[in-house]
Every structure is written in C-alpha cells, then in structure tokens.
Amino acid sequence: MPHVTRTIDYRHGTQPLEGFLAYDESVPGPLPAVLIAHAWGGRDEFVCGKARRLAELGYAAFALDMYGKGVLGTGPEQNAQLMQPFMADRALLQGRMKQALETVKALPQVDPERVAAMGFCFGGLCVLDLARSGADLRGVISFHGLFMPPTEVPNQPIRAKVLALHGYDDPMVPPDQVTALAQELTEAGADWQIHMYGHTAHAFTNPAANDPAFGTVYDATADERSWQSLQSFLREVLT
To answer: What ranges make up the beta strands (E) of the chain?
Structure first.
C-alpha cells in the first residue's frame, strides 16, 4: 500500500525535537496511531523503517525523538552519554514521552482515542515508563527493553495493556528482572503479557546491532515471532 512520510517538529520545554511520521493516506482516517521509541543511539533509520512497516498495516506511525533534532550517537560510548541523563532523571524521561504522546494525539491523521507505543532497548524502557506514568493510551510494547522501575518517581495505576517481548539470554536484563517486572505489573493492576524467546540475547530485532561480545545478537526467528505478536496485540488494543 502507498504511504507518505514527513518529519514533525515539536518541543519539550526548550528542547527542539523531530519525529518521523508515516501513514497511508488512502486509508480513511482518523487512524489508530503507534509511537515508536528508539534505542540508545537516537531516532535512526531502524525506527523509521518500523514506522513505514506499520503505515503499510494501516497505522499512523510516529518515530519519536528523545535526544533532540538531529542528535544521533556514533557508538556505544556516545550512545551511553546520550541515554544517561534520562536514566538518571526518570521524570525527565516520562515528561518527554508524554510530550510525544500529546504531539501524536494532536495530529489530524490520528484518532487520539486509539494510540499505542512501542520501543526497542532503551525505547522499551521509555514506553514502560510512559505506562508507569499513568498516561492515557491503549497499550505499550517493549522489544528487548530495559525493565528497571524508576525510584524517584511514584508509579501511577497503569491504564495501558503491556506486552514485553524479551530474550531469555539477554545479559542486560536477566530473568530475575523479568520476574520483577511481572510482579510490578501485577501489583499495578495492569493487563500484561511477557513473551520470552529461548536462546535469544539482547537486540534480537536489529541486524545492525549484532555484536555477540557485547551481548547483542540478531535472531531472525525471534524477530519474526515478535513482529507477529506485535501485530496481534495492536489489533486487540487499537481496533
């Protein structure tokens, strides 16, 4: 199906940001929308590619920007430097995610009552924190995300349904953290699912992130399984 893409300028406080919107203009609107939160390197072609794929499925897809217009990391050291302020200040992280959500809800192509958010690695943490903030959206999906809850920001009742897609052998988020997330979501009253993929490490959806020594290994089977699970979940929460 044909789709159109364009960048969207928006702001969080004084920080200029640039999102990437993709949607099929031949589908009658307003459309259900999916926010896409990037990994620690910034809003790159990987998440823009996911936005295009979602547009082909009939969604308005918005690859959001956590770091600032045009800001991309060049490698692990710089990526970590870009991510660290948000790990240290989860109120800042949640505020930036809420701004992206409000920006998407205000787009003329979008049905503001039908919005979900998905994220990869650091972006998985971002969408989980958006849910933890009590934000009004239908669902969140974490792909090989980070799970640690904020300590300085009180969690609110979780209104969004939650789907976490995770590798059992992920060295950055071992099984005890998965169990802790399940307990947290249960105590928050959330409707949650966690899908674990055996013999699967971190960043299993991204061929460009393949670095076994670092613990990131692309897995085509887990990638396809997780994408199928995503589509089923989006049909459930956005129909």
So the answer is: 4-12, 15-23, 31-37, 60-63, 110-120, 139-143, 161-167, 192-197
Asked if the model's pLDDT at residue 1 lies above 60, the reply is no
> What is the reported pTM?
0.97
Task: Compute the distance between CA of residue 156 and CA of residue 193 in angstroms, rounded to an integer.
Answer: 19
Closest CA to 168 of 129, 130, 210, 217: 217
Write out 137-177 in H/E/C secondary structure. Answer: CCEEEEECCCCCCCCCCCCCCCCCEEEEEEECCCCCCCHHH
Which residue in this structure is represented by tokens 């295009």? 52
Q: What is the pLDDT of residues 149-205, one digit of tens each?
A: 999 888 789 999 999 999 999 999 999 999 999 999 999 999 999 999 999 999 999
Q: Which of 112, 111, 127 is nearest to 161 (CA)?
A: 127
Other beta carbons within 10 Å of 177: 15
As a whole number, mean pLDDT of residues 95-117 equals: 98
- Of residues 93, 73, 92, the one with CA closest to residue 82: 73
Q: What is the mean pLDDT of residues 57-78?
A: 96
CATH number, span 4-238: 3.40.50.1820
Helices 76-88 and 90-105, packing angle to 10 deg: 90
Q: Quick one: pLDDT band at residue 2, thresholds 50, 70, 90?
A: low
Q: In whole angstroms, give the CA distance from residue 33 to residue 239.
A: 11
Domain ranges for the chain: 4-238
Q: CA distances (Å), 34 to each of 84, 99, 114, in order? A: 25, 14, 9
